[in-house]
Amino acid sequence: MKVVIAEKPSVARELARVLGAKTRKEGYFEGNGYQVTYAIGHLVSLADTKDYGYPFWSLSTLPILPPSFKTKITDDQGRARQYKVIEHLFKGADEIICATDAGREGELIFRYIYEQSECTAPFSRLWVSSQTDKALKEGFANLKPGTEYDNLYAAARCRSEADWLVGINATQAFTLKYGQQKPFSDQEGTRRQPVSLGRVQ
User: 110: which residues sit within 8 A by CB, 6+ positions away?
Assistant: First the structure.
């Protein structure tokens, strides 16, 4: 079975129609040798500081520089259920076709899911700039090896990790130093309003 993963449900419906996967299932479409499923944005993302052993915010623990980055499934229950659907389909797939958006972020969304699920099935890439039937059919007829997009994934992951490093450390530092005393608790019990900072802020 070939499993196709799109970035959002609306795109998955279009892909399923073009591929002839007419049977609707829970979280995917099936038919004509395909299972067409979808992410709902970032189902997998970089882990939080508490996952590295920092349950509280404290200036004494900054900067937080993980030796390697972990990923985790979203805490949102509805989206986590969709991740489980994808994981199940990936485990039974003979081949996976990445049909997330053609760009750095779309590549990252797919690769995080692929790696989190510990999938080993080979994958190829649908790379199209148009959602017309003609463009999609031509794209599926000319799939690219997934490895051709390894550098795109590396660039996306690098940016994601840089955002984490700057955002986590700067936000914690400025919140603890300058945050108004409102609904946030640090290790000492002081309540502060978070001061959000990041790479582009």
Answer: 5, 39, 98, 100
Say what the pTM is. Answer: 0.90
Question: Is the separation of the CB atoms in 179 and 57 below 8 Å?
Answer: no
Task: Give 150-200 pLDDT, tens digit per residue.
Answer: 999 999 999 999 999 999 999 999 998 887 665 555 555 556 678 888 877
Q: Distance (Å, rounded) from C-alpha 100 to C-alpha 139?
A: 13
User: Cβ distance 104 to 156 under 8 Å?
Assistant: yes
